[in-house]
Amino acid sequence: MDFKSPELKTAFHDSIPVMTGYVFLGMAYGVYMNVNGFSWVYPVSMAMIIFGGSLEFVAVTMLMSRFAPLQTFLMAFMIQARHLFYGLAMLEKYKGLRRRPYLIFALSDETFAVGGSKTLPEHLDPSSYYFYLSAMDQFYWIFGAFCGGMFGSFIPFNTEGLDFVMTTMFVVIFLDAVLKEKTHLPSLIGLLASLGCLMVFGADNFIIPSMCVILVFLILLRSKISASGGFQ
Amino acid sequence: MSPQTLPQQVITILLCAIATMCTRFLPFLLFGGKKEVPPIILYLGKALPSAVFAMLVVYCLKSVSVTSFPFGIPELIGITVTVVMHLWKKNTLLSMFAGTLVYMLLVQLVF
């Protein structure tokens, strides 16, 4: 790696806002796994092969529940479905680049937020820039997960209730989505469908029915939702 | 501890990874050759995220009982603190920190 390359410098500079978020959230994730009895090997390997923050948190709950491969896959797909649209948005930018499989593999929310909005100056090589950006972002996340998983057991205070960090994370992500949307119908559908299914099917079995009900209502109400001015 | 055996844990983790890779690679595999993206897919892409995140909030709270003590009160207060903090400061990590801290204090000292 050429440490003086202008692509590396630009990528590092652009990745700084991601650094704090990923290191601290990664640490919270590592500690969360630690207090649930998992060795640091889990958060680190999951950070390396899944590399999707919100899903990794949910995966802890999945690992703590009865083995349910179908539900695990479907739920993981739904949680990550938004990445389908990052890919669509990056089709042109990533066209013909070197190490493209890695770039696609590592296209996380934050890397998309930074890379998708970046207009690269002519003299910089996009292959190197996007590679450095993706790799640094993933490194921050793995580093955070390692620290949390490794040193989580040395936390000198009572960690009861620390699990709630996952709830607060999704509350914040959901709130951001609600504030951005022009119609709140999709949020309402999500809330009512899952609450309804939770009551009908119970805590262990409500996810797959909820996903079906959400999809059906989103498709049924498509013209109404699209007509209200769309999103963002 | 996890009720799953080690091979089951490995499968669970791999399924999460495979599902993630499907969502990241599919658009490039399906539409890399300049094919039109069906409008229904574009629509779902915009409408799904907030609905799914609503579902995930419910998922986090699925084991909370509102009919027995403490009736979900710590969760309600923790979420309220998170929301108020986020509307006020718009800082994700700060909102998460405040909500989690208040919740921990509540379950350890009050309830």
What labels describe this entry?
heterodimer; A: mainly alpha; 12 helices; B: mainly alpha; 4 helices; extended
Describe what this molecule looks like in 3D:
The complex is a heterodimer of chains A (232) and B (111). With 232 residues, chain A is mainly alpha-helical. Chain A folds into two domains: 149 residues, no CATH class; 47 residues, no CATH class. Helices cover 71% and strands 0% of the residues of chain A. Chain A has twelve helices and no strands. Chain B is mainly α and 111 residues long. The two termini of chain B are 24 Å apart. Chain B has a domain of 36 residues. Chain B is built from four helices and no strands. In chain B, helix 3 packs antiparallel against helix 4. The mean pLDDT of chain B is 90. At the A-B interface, helix 1, helix 2, helix 3, helix 4 and helix 5 of A face helix 1, helix 2, helix 3 and helix 4 of B.
The amount of beta strand of chain B, in percent, is under 5%
Segments of chain B where pLDDT lies below 50 for 5+ residues? none
Catalogue the unreliable spans of chain A.
none
SSE string of chain B, helix = H, strand = E? Answer: HHHH
The residue-averaged pLDDT of chain B reads: 90
The termini of chain A sit apart by: 39 Å
The tally of beta strands of chain B, per DSSP, is 0
Largest interface: A-B, 96 and 72 residues
Kindly report the oligomeric state of this protein: heterodimer
Question: From N to C, what is the helix and strand string of chain A?
Answer: HHHHHHHHHHHH
Give the rounded overall mean pLDDT of chain A: 90
Secondary-structure-based class of chain A equals mainly alpha
What secondary-structure arrangement, pairings included, does this model have?
The complex is a heterodimer of chains A (232) and B (111).
Chain A: H1 6-35, H2 41-49, H3 53-63, H4 69-80, H5 83-90, H6 100-105, H7 109-116, H8 126-151, H9 164-180, H10 185-201, H11 207-220, H12 222-227
Helix pairs in contact in A: 1-3, 1-8, 2-8, 3-4, 10-11
Chain B: H1 6-31, H2 39-60, H3 73-89, H4 92-110
Helix pairs in contact in B: 3-4
